[in-house]
Amino acid sequence: MSRVAIVGVGQTRYSRESGRSEWQLAVEAISNALTDCGIEPADVDGLVRYSYDNVDEAMIVRSFGLKLRYYSQTGFGGLGAPATLAHAYAAVASGQARVVVCYRSLNGRSTTRYGRAERSLGTGGGDLIATGDRAPSGAFAGPYGMLSPGQVMAMWARRYQWEAGLTEDELAAATGRIAVDQRAYANANPDAVMGGRPLDQTGYLAGRVIATPLRVFDLALETDGAAALVVTDAAIGPRPAVWIRSAIQGLIPYAESIATYGELRNGPTYRSLGSRLLQDAAVRPADLVSASIYDATSVSVLLGLEGYGIYPVNRAARAVIEHGIGPESPLPVNTSGGHLSEAYVHGMNLVIEAVRQVRGESMNQIPRSGPVLVASGPSGLVLTP
Amino acid sequence: MTSPIPPRVVPEESELTAPYWASAMLGRVALQRCLDCGLVWHPPAPSCPAGAAHRIEWFEASGRGRLYSYTVVEHPVHPAVIGALPYLLALVDLDEGPRLICNLVSTDPSDLSADLPVTLSAGPAAGGLTLPVARLDESAR
To answer: For chain B, does the N or the C end have fewer beta carbons within 10 angstroms?
Structure first.
């Protein structure tokens, strides 16, 4: 098997208003990631970014004087986070590049708010124009007022509630437990935007309803910040290498990031992709020490726990009500606080936290050594020491 | 003093989707169907997903379906829909197979449960147009 490792991670401060350009943030995060592993920019020959990123390859190449022989992009928003590492893994394993930097930079609160619709609707003749055929905000969604990812995921949550045979209160007990446990992780993480703000179930239930059954604490933060990782073919630098054991970048009809037309993310196709990811790493769900599961909303964690085989279909909610996702749970999830309480860097901060868990450097370190899962819908990674 | 009329949220039409919208503006749901294998799909696509060489046609759907999911939107994410709050967004699985995004009107959300039968017909969409919207089938209540 090819030996490909994540050797460096770097980030900026996470805030509600960076006061700086996304370009500046990207450069800072990449500089920090290179410093983390002691690799010089001159040795970087590959770059992977999100198609959504406003900071393109040419800007990074110019900023660091890079001479690339490989670059690529990953699509569909948050699905791109593990996928950037999947591209780097393939590029390094095939010899197309030796040192690949993956990055994401966004002023997600002060400039481009993914929780708002202003950025996605065009204007013309006094009307707002809903374009494309995707939800939210596309032609078949926007005219009905389906305008944000949270509204789509509220529909996932309701369908999951029905299929799992839960009352709305039981669903809230599960999603609330996710929000509360992730907030507790964030309270121990000095980088977390919500670091100083405790949350309990009473506070969770008192949160403003955004789109039933989801409340404000079920939704990802909006954050200004950037994060970067460095991938290469050897254990380089002072930190423990984190080996990429398997990667998947799945796409099935109607499974783009905020899908309305396809199966739920605990459905058979997702479970098959998730099972393949673990098999390729020769890992069983019970072997996992912790997981980063893409949490644009709390319900995505429930669906991810089932999609990746941690719990049987429609059983995650009751398991989470009973055990939570905290340090003592069967599988601790989003141990930095995740998108709900650390920051929303579009999945990249979740990848960084997975790397820290494998290295033994998390602020909420799980005291066991073993494989860590990164999962974002049909894209995922298994990382090991 | 009168408050300004909020902008409407209108769909961008294309050559591909024009037949859909021509029907939708009359409160009807038009779908594409494969003449060779019978598959029906939505949103509109340039070819049959089961065979790019298949022949396809538009037809008018029955307007009947079942409630796949819903949400009551209480927080506006755009000023255009503040006046419509709170509104019910629904996903309806049409009897013909495809799923449709729409509003559910004249309904108390406490009545709702999985797969309730609904009927689509012209009604007020949250973005200000008259479009196909879902109502619970009275016969099913």
So the answer is: N
| CA nearest to B81 within chain A | A145
Listed residue (A18, A375, A46, A33) closest to A228, CA to CA: A33
Contacts of B44 in chain A (CB under 8 A): 133
Please give the pLDDT value at position B106: 85
> Which candidate, A375, A339, A317, A309, places its Cα nearest to that of A85?
A375
Contact call for residues A79 and A346 (beta carbons, < 8 A): no
Taking CA–CA distances from B99, the nearest residue in chain A reads A261
Q: What's the CATH code, domain B18-140?
A: 2.40.50.840
Residue entry with tokens 């294998």: B37
The counts of H helices and E strands in chain B are 1, 9
What residues contact A341, with CB distance under 8 A and at least 6 apart? Answer: A179, A182, A183, A185, A186, A192, A193, A194, A199, A221
Map out the domains of chain A with their CATH numbers: 5-111+221-384 (3.40.47.10)
Each residue's pLDDT tens digit, A140-157: 999 999 999 999 999 999
Encoded tokens for A60: 């990074």
Helix (H) or strand (E) segment spanning residue A268: helix A268-280
Active site residue A204: no
**The pair of three-digit structure tokens given for residue A369, joined into one six-digit string:** 């050594």
The torsion angles phi and psi of A333, rounded to 5 degrees, stand at -125, 140
Report d(CA A321, CA B44) in Å as an integer.
41
Per the structure block, which two tokens stand in for A102?
């993956």
Q: What is the pLDDT of residue B107?
A: 86
- Predicted model pTM: 0.96
pLDDT tens digits along B36-77? 999 999 999 999 999 999 999 999 999 999 999 999 999 999
Residue A169: CB atoms within 10 Å: 10
The ipTM of this complex is: 0.97
Quick check: A165 contacting B, CB < 8 Å?
no
CA distance A233 to chain B (A): 40
Q: From CA A249, how far away is CA B88, in angstroms rounded?
A: 34
Give the C-alpha distances (Å, rounded to integers) separating B67 from A340, B88, B134, B135, B136: 29, 12, 9, 10, 9
Per-domain residue ranges of chain B: 18-140
Q: Is B92 helix (H, G, I), strand (E, B) or coil?
A: strand
Tokens matching residue A264 = 């739920």
